[in-house]
Amino acid sequence: MRAGTAGIVVCEDVLSAGQRSESWQPGDPFPLLPGPPVARYRKHLGLGGDEGWPVVTRQPRVGLVLSVGEAGRAAGRLLAAASDRPHEHLSLDQVTARLLRLGDVPAALVGLADDFADLADWPGRLAPRVGLIVARDATALLCLVYRTLTVDAVGDNGTFVATHPTQVDAPTADALGLDDLDVLRHRGTGTLVLRSFGRECCVNFPDGVICGRSGPTPPLVDTRTRVPSCLRGEGCYRPDLDESQRLPAAEVNASLVFMQACSTVAVGNNAFPTSVGVGLGFLDGTAVAVIGAVGLHVEDVTLRAVFEEEVSRGAPLGEVLDTLNRRADELHGEMSRFGLLGDPGLIMAPTQVVSTASTPVQTDPALLDQVVRWNDVVLPRLRSLRWLNVDLDETALADVAAHIRAVGPDLFKSVPAAEVRALADEVDRLQAGVVARTVARVHGDWWQFTAGGLAALRQESAEACACPRCGVDRAVRLRLRHRVHRDLVLRVVQCRHCGDVEQSTADAPTARTGVVWARRSEPAVVGAHVVNSGAAALNGAIGFAFVAGGHTGLPQGSHRALRVPAGEEIRVEWPVDLSTSTATADEHEFVCLSLHDGALSVVSGLLCLLGT
Fold first, then answer.
1. pLDDT tens track for 296-322
2. What is the pTM of this model?
3. How large is the greatest C-alpha to C-alpha distance in the chain, in angstroms?
């Protein structure tokens, strides 16, 4: 055992460090083991030798301390004694049950990374405020606890942001590649934000990687296990890089690291050996805590803003983690799950500057809801019309679907209002085109909405009702479902006097019409009432045409775009010039077609053409 200053005492082995931990109290020399982590911290503190090590003082923190393994027992005792928290030492098979009983209580789980391998999953999944104080060996673990208890002695409380050039906050980042990050080898920062692409062993940038390995030459691993190529003696998995383009995470000077890159926190759930985990690499260096992605990660710049806001207001790291995961769950669920390597009771010093790039551009919920409705409601409804003798522009339909897919990811980074307006125009043109082609078909032949398709519809219900046209209780409201396309439901009102009065793929028809009496010598008006009884505006088109008007001598129909505000009724009229018509004095059927938000309503009316 070798005494340093009053701040630390360097022990020979884990056993002697464990013995000192049994009676250790704040103010006593803190037991450490010799090795690279201690040397790195000495350099980071600016100490020339063994003088000047900070003394650990009492600093109460919320929650409790749990430990696993002999090194974990010693480190856990020291952490608990310094922070006035109870300490429980567990066997590995007791960990799961204990974490499940925690609820919202913050718990620091202390031990060596390999001690947690048999858990086979990330322990933090069991309770929302669990942090793992974990390292690759006993030397690093004891030094990590000491750094956690003396983090205020470092004095760095700025924020350094390193972002891949393709990320939305790249224009205001401090670094876009490894060359810009190299500065952190020589000076420290309070918080390092990393937003890039990665995997368990590294965080990627165009010109290099931040690597989880702390040493330059890794020991080779039995090739029958799952390991990265560097542990097979085959170099980095990125063949475009040489050794100078690998920055070991342990050489990056930062107290708190926030990473939005895949699998940066992997203990228990690790696929690779813990000797290459990038999160553990930072804890080998000067970091006291790492908040990073558990598994596959969908990045979202708004989560960076949540992290910075919570740290700046002085929230303990366990609370920061819980808030992050609650917000991430709203956005992307398990695809944005974060984990904490560090003490959940630790409160970091507020950062000096929160970058304006972290301020999220909130997506307008109304815009998002509109795109969701187009994709989930309007397009499926339009596709279903293929089964009901309705002509669709398949190319235009595919183009709208492709445009929605292209715009979708941007909705969660910014507000592409112009794109949404462009989409709205495309959807309107798509529906107007359906109505225009149907109006032409009605005029050109003896068109029926379900011509050739009635045999494929099975009646599900029938209910007596008053006829919407004549008002007499001699009609029936039918619900028909397609036998093959099961999502397609047609609602029909049939009157024993008036015939098929209404047919609609919506819950209720949006249009009503009736009987028009006219003479050739007088202007006639065909009209319809369009009703929106819902809570949102309806967008689409409306048209009318005489059935087989081209054969009977009646003028062509007409169509127009129509938006109906929520809760409103609009009267639509079409003047009809019969002065040159060759139609006979008779009853002539016409139909009004309303296509709104993908739902098609067809209501029939009669033009009663009187003689001269």
1. 888 888 899 999 999 999 999 999 999
2. 0.70
3. 122
